[in-house]
C-alpha cells in the first residue's frame, strides 16, 4: 500500500518528483488540441505552400512530435516516458489552424503533459514561421480532450 499520496511535495513541503514505482504499467492515451487564429491571407499562404519560410504545416508537425518526446526536459517534475506513438494533425479551417495531438504509452503514468506540450510547441512553431506576415495571430484554446488508462480512469472533455 502507498505510504505517501501522489503529490509533488515531500513531507517537508519541498518539490519532488512523484514516486510512481508501485503503479502498474498500463496502456495510456491522451489527446490534446489547440488553435492558431490568423488572417485569411496568412492561412491562404500556409495552405498553398507559399509561406516564405517553407512548409509551415510539416515543420509544425515535426516540432510537436519532437516536443512530446522531450516533455520531461522542459516541464519540471514530469516523468520521462517511453512513448509508443505520437500523431499530430493540423487542419485549416476558415480563420485558423486546428491542431490535435494523440500520444500513447505503456507506462506507470499518463501522457497528458506530452500531448499538451505537442500542441503548444506546434502552435508556437506556426506562429514563429508566420509572424513576419501576420503578427496578429493568436494561439488559443489549448486543452486536454481525452485521457484514458491508469488509476484515475477515463476523461473526455465536454
UniProtKB/TrEMBL annotation:
Binding-site list for substrate: 77-79, 113-114
A single GO BP annotation from the record?
A: Mo-molybdopterin cofactor biosynthetic process
Answer yes or no on keyword RNA-binding: no
Show the Pfam families listed in the entry: MoaC
| Sequence ranges assigned to domain Molybdopterin cofactor biosynthesis C (MoaC) in this UniProt record | 17-150
Q: In which pathway does it act?
A: Cofactor biosynthesis; molybdopterin biosynthesis
Identify the catalytic residues. Answer: 128
Which reactions are catalysed by this chain?
(8S)-3',8-cyclo-7,8-dihydroguanosine 5'-triphosphate = cyclic pyranopterin phosphate + diphosphate
Enzyme class, broadest EC rank? lyase
Q: Which CDD domains match?
A: MoaC_PE (cd01420)
Q: Its Enzyme Commission number?
A: 4.6.1.17
- Keyword RNA-binding listed: no
Q: Which UniProt keywords apply?
A: Lyase, Molybdenum cofactor biosynthesis
UniProt-recorded Gene Ontology molecular function terms:
cyclic pyranopterin monophosphate synthase activity
- Assembly and binders: Homohexamer; trimer of dimers.
Per its UniProt record, what NCBIfam families does this chain match? moaC, PRK09364.1
Q: Which family does it belong to?
A: Belongs to the MoaC family.
PANTHER family assigned to the protein according to its UniProt record, in alphabetical order: MOLYBDOPTERIN COFACTOR SYNTHESIS PROTEIN A
What function does this protein fulfil?
Catalyzes the conversion of (8S)-3',8-cyclo-7,8-dihydroguanosine 5'-triphosphate to cyclic pyranopterin monophosphate (cPMP).
User: What is the protein's name according to its record?
Assistant: Cyclic pyranopterin monophosphate synthase
Q: Which gene encodes it?
A: moaC
Amino acid at each position: 500500500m502507498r505510504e505517501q499520496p501522489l503529490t509533488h511535495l515531500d513531507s517537508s513541503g519541498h518539490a519532488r518528483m512523484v514516486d510512481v514505482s508501485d503503479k502498474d504499467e498500463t496502456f495510456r492515451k491522451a489527446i490534446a488540441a489547440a488553435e492558431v487564429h490568423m488572417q485569411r491571407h496568412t492561412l491562404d499562404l500556409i495552405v498553398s505552400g507559399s509561406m516564405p519560410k517553407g512548409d509551415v504545416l510539416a515543420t509544425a508537425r515535426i516540432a510537436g512530435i519532437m516536443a512530446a518526446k522531450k516533455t520531461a526536459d522542459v516541464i519540471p517534475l514530469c516523468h520521462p516516458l517511453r512513448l509508443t506513438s505520437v500523431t499530430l494533425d493540423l487542419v485549416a479551417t476558415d480563420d485558423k489552424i486546428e491542431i490535435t495531438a494523440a500520444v500513447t504509452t505503456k507506462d506507470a503514468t499518463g501522457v497528458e503533459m506530452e500531448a499538451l506540450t505537442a500542441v503548444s510547441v506546434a502552435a508556437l512553431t506556426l506562429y514563429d514561421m508566420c509572424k513576419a506576415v501576420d503578427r496578429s495571430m493568436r494561439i488559443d484554446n489549448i486543452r486536454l480532450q481525452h485521457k484514458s488508462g491508469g488509476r484515475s480512469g477515463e476523461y473526455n472533455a465536454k
